[in-house]
Amino acid sequence: MKYFTLSLQCFLPFLLLVMVVSMKGQSALPSMIYSWSDLDKGAEHVLLVGNTTHLKRLEIKAIRLVSKKRPKHERVHTGEEELIIVKEGQLKIRMGTTKSILGPGSVALILPGDKHKLSPAGNGPAVFYSMKYQSKKPMSVERGKKAGGSFVVHWEEVAYREHNKGGRRDFFDRPTAMSEDFEMHVTNLNETVQSHAPHTHEVEEIILMIQGNIEMHIDGATPKAGVGDFAFVDSLVPHAPTNIGKGQAIYFAFQWK
Asked: Could you give the CA distance from residue 191 to residue 243 in angstroms, rounded to a whole number?
């Protein structure tokens, strides 16, 4: 019995270490394709949740608000930031005294502490992605407010610039409360074209498909993604999208650190 007690005392620290490492491994987000899941009426669906190199917590939901019942989401995030991307329909957003109607492809970024309401604006449902995240570094609401505070970007107001591989729309590139720099753009990629050779960078990135089909090189693997799917690519993971469909592939790309 004395030998067993001594052995257990020696083993416990190792067991606790294994448990901690296991828990961390389970919550760390792998770089991969996350598939769109159709939503039932009025439903919410978590597409991704975990931690990353730069983020203590990252959660992406698909949300459908049904116009018939006019449900509203009224929120104040005190310790996290939120990025909203409209997939379908018309979404009304109210931030303070400012109201906006966001159509497909339009986005909103809401800083911690800013009260906002969301509701469908048209006759049909409003379907959107909600990305909420917390930085591992201390947040700086002051930094976010100095950069312009919470804001919306309308798809139709973003200039399109053609290039030899397709084209690009630049949505924003600025500091936020949770990021030293957050950049977002949309790429139009011509048929059979690879956007660039597989490469790495310190910033983390999400590729969100809004038209067509791509093959996504991610750390040697080559999974495919279609409309609504997205790829999460962690810091320093090799990656590159290639258009494998008919016509242009169009996708959001956003990066943060």
From this structure: 6
